Amino acid sequence: MDAEADSTQNPTPRHKCSACYKQFKKKEHLIEHMKTSNHSVHQPACGVCQKHCKSFESLREHLTGPLPKGVCSKTFSQRGCQLCLVLFDSPGSLIAHRETCCLSAPTRLGTKELTYIDSQFHRQDSSDENHAGRGPGGTVAIDCEMVGGGSDGSLELCARVCLVDEDENLIFHTYVKPQLPVTNYRYDITGLTEEHLRNAMPLGEVKENVCKILYNGENLGKIRLNGGKARLLVGHDLAHDLYCLNMHYPDHMLRDTAKYRPLMKTNLVSHSLKYLTRTYLGYDIQSGTHDPYEDCVSVMRLYKRIRAQKHPEEEDHGTSTPSNRIVGVPDCWRSKELDNLTPDQLYAMSRSDYKCWCLDLRPKLPT
């Protein structure tokens, strides 16, 4: 009986993750969790309890879901923004913030005849090598509209291309001459007809103009290395748009709202741009036919909102960690060395498995 009493009064200590607060019976289980969780200061975190979440969707569930955490939910309902999920010091600060956080939908271009807009944008050189074209005006958003080819209309053919800069200026817009006969104009979605594409720009010329804007006078070797003066390319499902344009752009220069980990569903499936815009910007798009300018502006706003997050610099917080470790690579975690570390020290070693967009505004280290 005495042994049972001691067991009740002094339960086996549990090992708690400093980021997501999961608890484990054995230290080795916590260490294994830290190897695969990729916790970091860049993960979405609750402004009340500071719990880390893998995505904004899971953070939203924590704050406002069917089974929200009591204290966090109550505090957030009084001082939290439903769009950006930021917690403010007072209800008054929240009211002032909402005026700028909830945006209105951009004006649609429609399907009127617009030709290539030679805006001088592609001839502007960035003078700040450290930012590699990531300063004001150094990022371009793209959206393509597709029509159908092939016997069943399922073959994707690029029919319209739009590019905007960070200030939402239209810098390139054109209809694209299909390389194959169009069997489905998908009018309900694209609003396009045969008339729009009759005298359209050939795909090769479209690709040349897009590359001229993106490369910004930089050679391909420098772009592949560290970007140089080339532009970051923002979009939603960029792989699809680039494929239909028959062009390639280095992965480290892409910012895809469909593939960015915090913007995805908890099961790592992409949300639609329509959902992301309504949830994080506060307005609806694609209510009728899809408008490429409207989509470009929306994806640029999403990127800038995520990029503007203020995350602290990652550091080891003065912890004594193995000198030969390589953070972020599970095979390099030494179990015997890690057994002696506290949960806070383990967290200090952990790193994201994605590049946070807030880093785009930080100067690059000299090479």
TrEMBL record:
Any one annotated GO CC term: nucleus
An example Gene Ontology biological process: rRNA processing
GO MF: 3'-5' exonuclease activity; nucleic acid binding; zinc ion binding
InterPro entries noted in UniProt: REX4_DEDDh_dom, REXO1/3/4-like, Ribonucl_H, RNaseH-like_sf, RNaseH_sf, Znf_C2H2_type
Pfam families named in the record: RNase_T (PF00929)
Keywords, alphabetical: Exonuclease, Hydrolase, Metal-binding, Nuclease, Nucleus, Zinc, Zinc-finger
Annotated compartments: Nucleus
Domain C2H2-type: 15-44
PROSITE patterns: ZINC_FINGER_C2H2_1 (PS00028), ZINC_FINGER_C2H2_2 (PS50157)
Family per similarity comment: Belongs to the REXO4 family.
Identification of the protein by name: RNA exonuclease 4
Organism: Vigna radiata var. radiata (Mung bean)
